[in-house]
Amino acid sequence: MSYSFTPAATLRDVTLRDGLQLTGKLLDTEQKIATVRELLRLGVQEIELGSMARADLVPPMANTLAVAEALTAEELAHCWIWVATPGHVAKAAKAGITNFQYCLSVSDAHNQANISRSTEASLEALPEAISYAQAVNGRIQLCLATSFTCPFDGQVPESRVLEIANDPRAEGTCDIVICDTLGQAVPAQVASLISNVRANSPQRRIVFHGHDTWGLGVANTLAAIAAGADVVDGALGGLGGCPFAPGASGNTSSEDILFATRPQWLTPERFGELVQISEALLAQLGEPNRSKSAQGARSKAKAFEWVIPSGPRAMDSARS
């Protein structure tokens, strides 16, 4: 019997961008390419490929364009890249990228810390970024970091999020990404903001980006979906965080989101493969696995079909 969570939402895996921002070790280009292809093969429909952030500030993002250039146009159609300026969009477009996530912070203090300009300056530049995206027949999202709380200013008013969501300079964006950057929101708060954005701003896809800092990542994600989010973000093993937001920790785990929502493409066999891919990646990076469902998949409750059988799983058999 299937127990898919309704309404349905699409998972976007953000391991290769937000997931890698705080890691001490780096992934080379070939490893990132392989990760993209494995995720797509298993059924993940959208992936955050990387960032145009300065490599001296965020070293794990240095090879983002090299990864993009190695992927096919069909593969890139599933991938998004983080950008913060029109120049970022233009440069990424030359590498074949057509899906852009234009990020600014609702909190001016965090926008200054994150991308060294005011929120207003980021909004002023948005129409030019939209034009660059449209020139390559691309899509561009409006991504609102610190939509709930800011590490410097504290609570962020819901009215300010709605003000930016309705800013005419965002006309032409295909999605709006609502970010719980610090993982400090609670489900009722998430449901309120997502519902309000859905009802009182231009119609476009709503993406919820959550963190699990206070242990509510999955609960907040489910609340966002129930309130109208079309896409939700997660990272393998709960990896990640923002280097410019003190107090931010790992993303909500992709494994936990998938286990909770049970999209039609997810089978116990594919879930087991995803757990193994995640474990290998985290071991290479020297990072802990924060996914509770991945831990559960390694339990001794053998009668439960989602538990991975003891011994190495025959990957070729599972893929057949």
UniProtKB/TrEMBL annotation:
Single annotated GO MF: lyase activity
Key word Membrane present:
no
* Residues covered by the Pyruvate carboxyltransferase domain: 9-275
Q: Write down the superkingdom of origin.
A: Bacteria
In terms of InterPro entries, this protein maps to: Aldolase_TIM, HMGL, PYR_CT
| One Pfam short name | HMGL-like
Q: Which UniProt keywords apply?
A: Lyase, Metal-binding
Indicate the family of this protein: Belongs to the HMG-CoA lyase family.
What protein name applies here?
Hydroxymethylglutaryl-CoA lyase
- The source organism is Glutamicibacter halophytocola
